Records
---
Amino acid sequence: MVRGIKIAVIITLLGVVFGSCDRSPKKNSVADLKHTTLKIPVVDSEDLANRLYTYYHHDASNQVQYEENKIIEYAVEHGLDLTRDSTGLYYMIVEKGIGGYLKEYEKGTCFYRGYTLDGKEFDSNFGKSPLRFTVGELIYGWNVGLTKIPLGSKALFVIPSRMAYWERGHSDKIGPYESLVFEIELLL
C-alpha cells in the first residue's frame, strides 16, 4: 500500500515538475537551441523526463540540487537525450567519431561554443583557430567530458557550476553558480 502511494506521488510530482513541457513532436526533430551549430536530435520529452527524473530533487535544499533540477528541466524542455555520469556531468554524443578516447594529460584539439542555460553565448572558436588543450588543465566538466567521447565526435556538455566556475563566475559573461552548455567538435 505504501509503495503504491509513493509511486502515485512520484507520478503526480513528475506531472507537476514537467507538466509545462511541450511534449509534442518537434517539427524537424532537431533541438531548437539559440546558438547551436550542431544538429542535435531530440527525443520524446515524456520518456526523457521519466529517465532523468531519478536525479530530480523535489525539495532542493542546496545549490547543487537546485542546479541539477535546472539542468534536468533544460534537457526536457529542449528534448536533449543527455546522459548523467557519476560526477554530475550531463553529456550527449551528437555524432560519434571514429577515433580513440583521450586520457588525462593527453593533448587534443577542438572547436567549441559555450553558452548559459538561457542561451547567452559567452565564447566560441567556430570559424577561428581550433583550441589546443591538455586533458586535466581545463575546467573539471571539460576534463571529465572529453574522456567520454571518441576523437572526431560532436558532443554537447551541460556542466553544473561546481564543475566549472562555481561561486566566482568568470569575467562579466558567466555569473556565479551558472550552469554552462558547450557544443564540442573534437578533432581527430
---
Amino acid sequence: MVMRKTILIVEDNQEEASFLTRALSPLYQLHVIANGAEALAFVRSGHDFDLILMDIRMPGMSGDRVLKGLRQLGDATEVLILTAFDASDLAISTLHDGAFEYLTKPITRDRLLLKVSQALESGELKKSETIELQYQNRRNHFKRNFVHSIGQTIADEEFDDYSTHHDAFIDRLSRRRIR
C-alpha cells in the first residue's frame, strides 16, 4: 500500500480551509489547524509532514513567524505561503526565510494542485540529497578511520621493525665494545 503524502494546512479562515480541504483531500492526507502557535506546537511535538500550506496573516502568530520557528527547530519541510496581498514585502521575505513559494489568494484548484505537487517533489529531492550526503559523510568518515587505523598499524609495524633492528644493532655495538 502506497502511503499518501501528508500536508499540514494552517489557515484561520474557515472558508479558505474548506476550499483547501476539498481540493486536496482526494489526493493527500490532511491535518488542518486554525492558528500559527498551535501549528508550531504540533510540529514541535513530533508530527512530521511532507508539506505545510500556511496563511501568512493570522491572529496571534503569523505565518512568517511560524516559518521562522520551523527553521529554528531545524525543520526543512517545504512550506507554501498563502497571501491575499500580491507580492507584499512580507510574502517575499518568507522566500528568504525558506518558503518554497507564496501563492496569492484566491487560487484556483488547478494552480493549487500544481504548486503542491511541485513543492512535494522539491521536498523529496531535498530528502534524497540529504540522505545521499549523509551516506557520503558516513562513508568518508569510515574511510578516514580505516585509513588511519591501517596507517597506524603500518606505522606500528615499521616502528617494531625499526626497534627490533635498532635493538639488534645496539646489541652488536655493545658486544664490540665489551670485547
---
Amino acid sequence: MNKPIFIATIGVLAVFLLFGCVNPFSNPTPTPSASPSQTPTPSIEHNVVQAGDLVTLDYTTWVDGKLLDSTNKTLNPSSNGPIQAVAGKGQLIRGFDQGLLGLKRFESANLTIPPSLAYGEYSQDKVKAVRTVEFATVFTASSVVVGNKIQNQSSGEFGTIITVNNTHTTIDFNPPLAGKTLVINVKILGIAKPRAPVDPSAKTNNTK
C-alpha cells in the first residue's frame, strides 16, 4: 500500500526524533521520542490506528535510495526491535505520525514523506561563518576540523563544520536530513488505546 503524504494541506514541520537527527522518527526531534517496544500498561486493543493509540510497529527508512535506519535486525543488527509510540501526539516526525492514522493491525504501508513534514527544507540562512580565532569562545569542539559536529554554547544549536581557513570557519546548522524526502516502510504490529490512569487516592465505596 502506498500512502504518500502531501504538502498542500499540512503546515511545515516544527523541527527532531527517532532525534536522532538521523533518526527520522522523533520530533526534532527523529525523531519526545518513540521508545523500544515494551509491555504497555493495561489497555483496550482494537484494529485501526487512531490519534492517542499506543502503536507497536516495525519500520525501515530509505533516503535517496539508501538505507537510513530499520528495526529489522537483518538490515540493522544493532536494532532493539519494534518500537512503540502514541499516534498523533508528536512523538514521531509529522509525516510519519500522520501516515499511521487509519492503518490496520498487521497492515504494511509505504509512506513518502516530503521535507516539509520531516526535517524541513534546506536553508542557506542556517549556514554561518565565524572567525576561526574566535571559534573556541562560541562553540565547543575537540578541534576545528571539517566534518566535526559542534554545539553553539549560547543557543544550544548543533551544527557541522563544512569549511575551515585561516580567517573563518563555516558551520551548517541545518539538520542532516534537511531537504530530504524520506520513504518509510512500516508494519503495524499492535494497536492499543491506553486506559485512563487509576487514581490511587480514590476510595471505593462498598454499600451493604
---
Amino acid sequence: MTFIDITTLKRMVFSFESHPPRTADLEKRIKIGSAFHNKWYKSQRDHMLGWMVVQECQARKSGNHPTMVDAQGMWNRLKCSPLMFWLAECGGVSNDVLCQAEIHAVRAAELNPKDGDPHGAMMRTVLPWTLVATAISAQPLHQWDDNADQAAEEAFQRLIAKNAAYRPLAQWLEGNTNQLSGREIPSK
C-alpha cells in the first residue's frame, strides 16, 4: 500500500492543474463545482488545498503531526465527486477508470444535485484510495513550490470566511501552535 501523508499530498496537489479539461467538463455536466452553489473555492485545486489545511489542523488538534497522518483517512471522508475526480485526473489515473468515475459522478448527482452523500461512497467504488495514491506516487516528482503552504492557507481562510464551523481550527494552523511534550497546543 502507498502511504502519502496529508502535508505531502497538500504540497503535491499545489503543482496540479487548477482546471483540467475532464474535471471542468464534469463540473458543467453535473452542475457541481467551483462555478455552482456559491462555493468558497475557485477551482478543485483550491478546494483540495483548503481541505488539506483542515486535515492538518485536525491532526494537530488530536496531537498528531500531519506528516504522520495517512491521506487515506481524508479520502475516505470526501463527499465531492468533482474534487475526487480532479485528484484522480491530475494524479494520473487511467482513462478507463476515469470514464467509470464520470458515470458514478453523474449517477450521484442524479441522487443529490449538490455534493454530499452519496457522492463520496459512489466515487470510492471506482476510485479507491490505493488506486489514486498509487497513480499519484507514480507521477514524476514535482518541485515543491515555496508558495504551496501559503496558497493552501489562503484557501483555508476563504473556507473559514464562508463556513463558520471550521473557524475554531484556525488556532491549529502550523504557525499558531507550539510543541510541548510531543503534543501540539494552541499558542496564546
